[in-house]
Amino acid sequence: MKLVLDLGVCLLLWAGLFFIFAGTVGLLRLPDIYTRMHATGKCDTLGTTLVLVALATQAVAYTEVVKLLVMGVLIYTINPVITHLIGKTAYQRHAEQAPGTFFLDCYDAPFPDEKVMGKEEQHA
Fold it and tell me: How far is the CA of 57 from the CAs of 53, 62, 73, 76, 77, in angstroms?
């Protein structure tokens, strides 16, 4: 039974390292900040989660499992927020985009059935 558990841990660790490596390759190879942000945000979250699950299965005490669980919750909450802030800051600073990128400016569009007050005077 110990051998099966150790093989499962090895599989989880190697899968986690693969996703972390894929995110690093995406960070180095992709053309603009938006695609780099997407690659690192998704791959790092999944890779780190797989490594934390592998560590949790090898933990001896419950306190270690709780610490790893807290780390996982923090990663799942902080990583998407930081990724969104990086993307929003890049958008606001008009970061360079890859050629052929479809761009849709939705921030100035009103909600359905709502008029934008004073917008006509700005563009006139």
Answer: 6, 11, 17, 19, 22
pTM to 2 decimals? 0.76
Domain hosting residue 114, numbered range: 2-123
Full pLDDT tens readout for the chain, 124 residues: 899 999 999 999 999 999 999 999 999 999 999 889 988 888 999 999 999 999 999 999 999 999 999 999 999 999 989 999 998 898 888 888 888 877 766 666 555 555 655 545 444 4
DSSP-derived secondary structure letter, 111: P
Tokens of 11: 């599989």
* Residue spans of beta strands (DSSP E) within the chain: none
- Chain position carrying tokens 């599989």: 11
Number of independent structural domains in the chain: 1
